[in-house]
Structure formats: C-alpha cells, structure tokens
Specification:
Number of strands: 4
Low-confidence stretches: 1-9
Structural class: mainly alpha
CATH topology of the largest domain: ABC transporter involved in vitamin B12 uptake, BtuC
Largest sheet: 2 strands, antiparallel
Strand content: under 5%
CATH architecture of the largest domain: Orthogonal Bundle
CATH class of the largest domain: Mainly Alpha
Mean pLDDT: 86
Number of domains: 2
Number of helices: 15
Order of helices and strands: HHHHHHHEHEEHHHHEHHH
Distance between the termini: 41 Å
Strand order of the largest sheet: 1-4
C-alpha cells in the first residue's frame, strides 16, 4: 500500500519524461550503439546541456509568472561582448592578472543581467506592456548595443584561464555541467520551497486574485525577471568559456529550444502550473533526440520542423488540458451549489 501511495504522489509528467528518455536512449543504442556510447559523445552531450538548460530556466520562471522572456540570449551575448572588450584591453600579455579580471567579469555579468531584467520588469509591471512585446523589443535593443560595440565582429581570444575553466572536469563530469545542476537545484528550491515561489505561481494562476490576497505582483514580477536576467548573464560567461568568442547574434535558436524544453516539461505558458525539475528531464530527452538526429545526418531543416511540430503540439495539449480542467472545476462548483441549495430547501 505504501508503494502505491508513493507512486501516486510521483508527478505523472516526470514518469512520462523518464519513459521517453529511456526509450530514446535505448533506441539510439540499437541504431548507433557503437558511436552513441563512446565516452567522447557522452561527454559532449553533458557539455551541450548547459547553455540550453540555463536558458530554459529563464523561460520557466517567466512562464510561471504568465509571461515570457525573449531577451535572454541577447543578454548573454551582451555580457560576453562587454567582458570580451574589457579582457582584451586589460589583461596583461603574460596573463598575470587574468584571474583577477575574470572575477571582475563575473560581477559585470551579474550587474548586466540584473539591470536588463529590471528594465524588462519595469516595462511589464509598471508601464503595463505585454511581456512578449517588451522582451521582443529589448531583445533587439540589447542586440543593437552589442552590434554597436563590436561593429558586427566577434570578440574572442579570451584568457587561457577562462578556457581551462570551460574545459575542466570533476570526477569525469564537465565542471560546467556540475555547476549547472547545482544552480538548477537552487532554482527548484526557490520556486517550490520558498514564499517567493508560491507567490510566483499564485500570480501566474490569477494575477487579480493574488493582488486581492495581498501579494505584491509588481515585486514578484521584478524578482522574476531580474532572476531570469541574472541566469542569462551567467550563461554569457559560460558561452565565453565554451566557445572562446562572443557575438551579438550568437545562439539565435536557443530561445526556441528553451521554449520547447519548458513546454515539453509541463511548464504551462498560461502561467502558474508546472514543476521546474521536469525541465531537466525534458532537456535530457531533447538532447538525446538532437544527438540522434546529428548521428543519423538528419537535415537541419527537417530537424527544426520536427521540433517546431513538437512545440505547437505540446502547446495545443496544454491548452486542451487547461480547458478540461476549467470545465471540471466549473461542473464541481455547479454541483456543490445545487447541493447547498437542496440542503437549504430541506
């Protein structure tokens, strides 16, 4: 009996995603086992989880607030460009002050991320513009600033210390992947185990009701978008460490990947519903699928079409599920009302 109760408490979406990941993993072993299971390929997949995973966390936070943040990739690129220019002008030829300057770069990344997030939040919460319009606009603003700073060129040739950090391993696992998982755990705790997280989900479910219940929606919105900007800023440092370059239009497909990852993970674009930990399971499934497509030499056009179909289909399922849930609650409310009236008549 205890085992059945435990199983009932397990999130159904988690079981679905685990099952999908296992099926995809087994399928790749059957189709490309000799290449798929190579240590170099597993290591590459672990590396590739980091950037899409960080951006997916940003989108998950925005989704839970019934919003969206399309500017996250350009925030990361702006961080890389500003830090790249700083490193090029300040690091000594012998690299003697590289570590100190990299510490400064981390603080710059945090500052830029928080500032960009605060700008998005101000336009959404104070001015009252729709999140998709705000972040679409700031996306182009941040990209434009990057273009002006670089004249369209890429910043690169970063200090060896940064590149060594990007390639470092701990117990055979990429260090960046370990740090990503730790940050992911922190975000899960913040969303599901803190007062802010509960307020975020309540606001996303019904902002008017949350306001009447005493929740400061403006404060929650600022916290959400600043946290999203902070994570995006840190991702800018990750991109620098992994690619040894920074460009204003780098990673244009990351936003789409993050949207797909969150929707498949059960984070509702309609706000207030979803478990953040399922985003990691969704990320793993998509990474296995993407690696499989690459190994089987599937055309990028076909691959993007499949991912686009998955996004549209997932959003449609979420909409239908939400509609059925609303209808069920309405029926229950009507039934309860009829029962109450019946008791009064008696």
């Amino acid at each position: 009996m205890n085992g059945i109760k435990t199983l009932n408490r397990v999130d159904r979406k988690s079981l679905q995603l685990i099952g999908i990941s296992v099926l995809l993993f087994v399928g790749m072993i059957v189709l490309r086992g000799n290449r798929f299971l190579r240590p170099a390929n597993i290591d590459s997949m672990l590396f590739q989880l980091v950037e899409p995973g960080l951006f997916a966390m940003c989108i998950a936070l925005a989704y839970l607030s019934r919003g969206i943040d399309l500017s996250i990739v350009t925030i990361a690129n702006l961080v890389g460009i500003v830090n790249g220019i700083l490193l090029r002008r300040t690091v000594a030829p012998d690299g003697s002050n590289a570590i100190q300057m990299l510490v400064v770069c981390v603080f710059i990344a945090i500052t830029i991320g928080l500032t960009c997030g605060a700008l998005n939040a101000f336009l959404i919460a104070r001015v009252g513009i729709f999140p998709i319009l705000v972040t679409l606009g700031t996306q182009n603003v941040f990209m434009g600033i990057g273009m002006i700073l670089t004249q369209g060129r890429a910043e690169g040739n970063f200090p060896k210390a940064l590149l060594d950090f990007g390639d470092a391993h701990i117990f055979g696992v990429p260090l960046l992947t370990v740090l990503f998982l730790l940050l992911f755990l922190i975000v899960c705790v913040v969303v599901h185990r803190t007062p802010y997280g509960r307020k975020l989900q309540w606001m996303g479910s019904n902002s008017r009701a949350s306001w009447f219940s005493g929740i400061d929606n403006v404060k929650v919105t600022f916290t959400t978008y600043m946290l999203s900007g902070l994570i995006a800023g840190l991702c800018g440092m990750v991109i620098m460490a992994r690619s040894n370059s920074a460009k204003a239009d780098y990673g244009v497909t990351y936003v789409f990947q993050a949207l797909l990852t969150c929707v498949l993970g059960g984070i509702s674009p309609l706000g207030g519903r979803g478990k953040v930990y399922n985003v990691l399971l969704s990320l793993v499934a998509l990474q296995i699928l993407g690696t499989g497509f690459n190994m089987m030499r599937v055309s990028p056009l076909i691959r993007d079409s499949i991912f686009g179909f998955l996004l549209v289909f997932s959003i449609l399922l979420d909409y239908v599920s939400e509609k059925r849930r609303t209808e069920k609650l309405n029926r229950q409310a009507i039934k309860a009302s009829i029962e109450i009236k019946g008791l009064k008549l008696e």
